[in-house]
Amino acid sequence: MKKAIKINLSGIIFHIDEDAYEKLKAYLDTISRHFSNKQESKEIIDDIEARIAELFQEKITEETQVITLKLVNEVIDIMGNPEDIADTGEEAEQQHTFHESYSRSRRLYRDPENSVIGGVCGGLAAYFNVDPVIFRLLFVIFFFAGGASILVYAILWIVLPRADTAAQKLEMRGEKVNVSNLEKKIREEYDSVKENVKEGYTKARNSDTYKKTERAASDFFEVLGKILLVFVKVILIIIGTSLVIAGIGLLIGLIALPFVGIHMFPFESYNFSLGDILIPFTDPVSVTLLVIAVTLLLLIPVAAMLYGLVKLIFNIKTRNRGLTIGAVTLWFVSLFCIIGIVAFESSNYSDFGHEDYSQELNIGSDTLYITINESQDEYLDEESIIDLGNKWFLMEDADAFYGRITLDIERTEDDAFLLEVEKESKGRSWDNAQDNASNIDYHYRTSGNTLELDPYFSVDLDHKWRFPRVEAVVRVPEGKVVVLDRGTRDILEGVRNVDHLSDWNMAGKTWRMTEDGLEKIAN
Amino acid sequence: MNIDNAKAQMRKGILEYCILSILAKKDLYPSDIIRALKENDLIVVEGTLYPLLTRQKNAGLLHYRWEESTQGPPRKYYALTEIGKSYLKELDKSWADLINSVKSIKNYK
C-alpha cells in the first residue's frame, strides 16, 4: 500500500504516489535551480510541467490511474536530465570553466546561521556533515566532565573565522564553489535580505522615532547586547543541562522503582520493592497493573518535561502530534486504571466480621501470671522486612503475615479468671469478612497459674490482608491479683487502673482488681 | 574527444535555426515542435527545447498565444515575430553559406 498525493500539474489534477511525487519535485527543483533568471526559470518550468502533464495523460490508462515512480522515471528519461536542459542555456561554456578551476574544498568556519553561542558547533557540524546537536552535546558533556570544553570552545571561537560571504558558506559546507552554486546561494541571501529590508522599511515608516533612536544607540547596544546574550545563553545551557541530567536520573529511578528493591529504612538493611508492599493486599495481576499504571502516571510528565527542555536548549524545532496524543492518552488510561483498581480493591474492605471465643482459666490460685511468648518477638525482629506502624509485619520468606494483638484487663462478676479472644477482619461481604476473621491464626498457652500469650497472630499467605485484628481480654474477679510480665508492655492497650499509669508503665507490676479497676500493689 | 559529444554540440548549434525553420511554416505548440525535431533526430531529450523557446521568445524572435485544447490544458502556440522572420532569413543565408563553405573545404586541394 502506498500513499498517493493529489497534484495540480499545469491545471490538470493527477494522483501520484508519494515516492513518485518526491522524485518529480526534486527533478523540477533541480532544473529551476539551474537558471539564473527567476522569471525565465518560472516560464521554462511551466512549459516543462505542461509537457509532463501531457505525457502523463498519454500514459494513464483505465488500469493505471495513479502515477507511479516508474512512470515518473520514464518521463524524466524523455525530458532529459537537468544538466542537459540547462546546458542549452547561453552561459553553459562559462560554467564549464568555473567547474574546472575550483576544486571541492572544505574549510572550518563558524556558522552564524546555525549558532547557539558563537556558531562553533554549527561550523564543526557543517565541516563533518553531521547534526550540530552532536557537537553541542559533546561540549556540554565535556564541560561537566571537567570544564575543559569551555576553553576549547573559546579558542575555536577566537581562531575560526565566521562564514559571512556566500563563498565562505559554501566552503564551510563543502559544496563546490562554482557559478551555479554561488549564484544559488547569493540568490537565497538576496531574497532573505530583500525580505528583511522590506520588513524594516515598513517598521521604520510606522515609527520614525524608533528608527532614529535605534540608529543612534545601535552600535553600542549591539555589542553590549551580544555579550549579554551569549552570557545568558551559556548560563541557560548550563542550568538546562543540569536539569536534563537530574531529570534523566529521576526517570531512571522511576523506571527502576517497581522492579528493583529500594532502601526504605537506610539504617536497617530492609530491601523491598513497591510490588512487595502490595502483594499482601491484592492479587499479583492487580499489583502488576497498578505498578505499571503508577509508573506511567509519574513517568510521562517527567519525560515530557525533559523532552521539552532538551528541545529548548538545543533549539530543536519538531512537532510530533502523534507522540503527544499518544502520551496524553496513555497518561489518562493510567489514571483511570489506577482509579479502577483502587475502587475495585477497596470493595474488598467494605464489610466487617468477627469470631469470638472465651475460655475460663481454672488456675486454682488467686494470682494469675500473664507472660508473652518472647521467641515470637525475636523471630519477627529478625525476619520481618516491612513493619507497618509496628503492628503488622510482612516477612521476607515466611508463609504468613503477622499482626500484633492488643490486651485489655477488665473486671468480671464471676469467680473465675476468663480469657476472651475476639478476631476481626474486613471483607467484601459479611460472609467473606467472617471467613477472613476465622482464618486468623492465634495461640496462647496456660500452665499452672501462668497464661502465656503469643504477642502476634498470623494470617497465612493464601489469604489476603484485610485489616485483621485480634483483641484479647482477661477478665479478673474483684480482689484477685494479676502479675503483668515486662513483655506485655507492647500489647497492653487502654487498661483502666486507679493509679492512672500508662499501658507501658503497667507492665512488670503486680495488680489487684478493685471495683474501679486495677490497683497497683507491688512493683 | 567523444564522438557523441561532438555530434551533440553540432546539433545544439543548429537547433535554434531548426526551431525557427519549423515555425516559419506553421504556428505550433511545443509538443508538435518536439515531434518534428524527434522525427528528424535533432533532439534526444525533450527538456532541452523549453529553455531555447523561452530565450528566443525573450529575444523577441517568437511570441505565443494560448489556445484551448480538446484534450488537456490550454496550449501555448508559438509563432515567429517580424524580427524572428528577418532573423530566420539571415540564418537561412548563413546556413547556405556554411554549406557551401563546408563543401568547398571538403573539396579543397
Helicity of chain A, in percent? Answer: 40-55%
> Which word captures the global form of chain B?
globular
Chain pair forming the biggest interface: A-B, 28 and 23 residues
Strand order in space, largest sheet of chain B:
1-2
Structural class of chain B: mainly alpha
Number-wise, the strands of chain B total 2
Shape estimate of chain A: elongated
* Number of helices, where a helix is a run of at least 4 consecutive DSSP H or I residues of chain A: 17
Contiguous uncertain segments of 5+ residues of chain B: none
Total beta-strand segments of chain A: 18
Tally of helical runs of chain B: 4
Overall pLDDT of chain A, averaged?
78
Description of the structure:
The complex is a heterodimer of chains A (523) and B (109). Chain A has helices at 18-33, 38-59, 69-79, 82-87, 92-101, 120-128, 132-144, 148-159, 166-173, 179-206, 208-256, 274-278, 284-313, 321-346, 374-383, 430-438, 503-506, and strands at residues 4-9, 12-17, 262-265, 270-272, 351-361, 367-372, 384-388, 392-395, 400-404, 406-412, 417-427, 444-447, 450-453, 456-460, 469-477, 481-484, 510-514, 517-522. By secondary structure, chain A is an alpha+beta fold. In chain A, strand 8 (392-395) and strand 9 (400-404) form a beta hairpin. Chain A is elongated, with a radius of gyration of 42 Å. By secondary structure, chain B is mostly helical. Chain B has helices at 3-25, 30-39, 49-58, 82-106; strands spanning 62-67, 75-80. The longest helix of chain B is centred in the C-terminal third of the chain and has 25 residues, at 82-106. The mean pLDDT of chain B is 85. The chains are: A alpha+beta (523), B mainly alpha (109). Chain A binds chain B through residues 10-12, 31, 35, 40, 43-44, 47-48, 50-51, 53-54, 57, 77-82, 84-90, and chain B through 12, 15, 30-31, 34, 44-48, 50-55, 58, 71-76.
